[in-house]
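ok, trying the design again with the full structure, not the truncated one.
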């Protein structure tokens, strides 16, 4: 999936789940993490595209290891300090924001798993959805369907509860 498609799908999915606009932008910004870490020094660690950097087990471990960081004094201080400002208290800044990068990466993996290339899971096993090929019309259609599916609960909740 192209990077712009990852951003659109991740934003739509996060907003449909959370209803939180800043959180959706933040998670969407990290939706490229599995690809980004393969560049620069990471190319020596993650030797091939859609290798370890695209393994969901790797990112679930990162997600689990991120939770203790929310208890660091600097993160706790940030929650108290930023919570004093209306802009941050309105959007519920939380110490759990340390989970945003791994959450964005997991969205990326779900989106890549729908492709014809798929993603690795364990010992050569792959998750392959075969719904699209990157850069083709089929990718555009998949992105459009995801956005429409994510808009449905937002629109329903808007009209039912407003």
């Amino acid at each position: 999936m192209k990077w712009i498609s990852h951003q659109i799908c991740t934003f739509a999915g996060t907003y449909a789940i959370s209803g939180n606009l800043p959180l959706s932008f933040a998670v969407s910004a990290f939706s490229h993490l599995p690809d980004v870490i393969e560049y620069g020094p990471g190319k020596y660690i993650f030797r091939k595209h859609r290798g370890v950097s695209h393994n969901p087990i790797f990112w679930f471990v990162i997600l689990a290891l991120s939770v203790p960081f929310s208890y660091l004094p600097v993160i706790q201080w940030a929650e108290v300090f930023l919570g004093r400002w209306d802009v941050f208290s309105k959007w519920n800044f939380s110490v759990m924001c340390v989970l945003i990068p791994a959450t964005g990466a997991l969205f990326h993996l779900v989106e890549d798993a729908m492709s014809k290339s798929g993603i690795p899971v364990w010992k050569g096993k792959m998750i392959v959805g075969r719904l699209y090929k990157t850069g083709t019309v089929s990718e555009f259609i998949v992105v459009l369907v995801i956005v429409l599916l994510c808009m449905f609960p937002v629109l329903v909740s808007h009209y039912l509860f407003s």
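Keeping the full-length input from now on. Residues 44 and 148 are 39 Å apart (CA to CA).
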